[in-house]
Amino acid sequence: MRKANGYYSIVNKQSGKYMDVNGQSTADGAINIQYASNGGKNQEWLLVDLGNGYYALENRNSRKFMDISGSSTADGGQSIQWTWNGGNNQQWTIN
Hints:
It is a single chain. By secondary structure, the protein is an all-beta fold. Helix content is about 0%, strand content about 30%. It has no helices and 7 strands. The strands form 3 sheets. A 3-stranded antiparallel beta sheet has the order 1-4-5, with no helix packed on it. The chain has a two-stranded antiparallel sheet with strand order 2-3. A two-stranded antiparallel ribbon has the order 6-7. The chain is globular and about 35 Å long.
């Protein structure tokens, strides 16, 4: 895995709010929410190039990765953070 230089904020176009690990949690399973910018490290993400056209998104505060809970493929699947396990539910493309 190759890590990008620097951390990024992920901002929703509709709301203008930031991808945020709720309550600055460092626990597996903590929910990712949208929240107003507050300068917290829980709103900063490192893009990790997996070398296969996909990226992992590592949270600066917790060092855990953006994950879709339970590997759900359903609409409304919950975005959480989890320890790196290499699952497809932790791999993302950037468009």
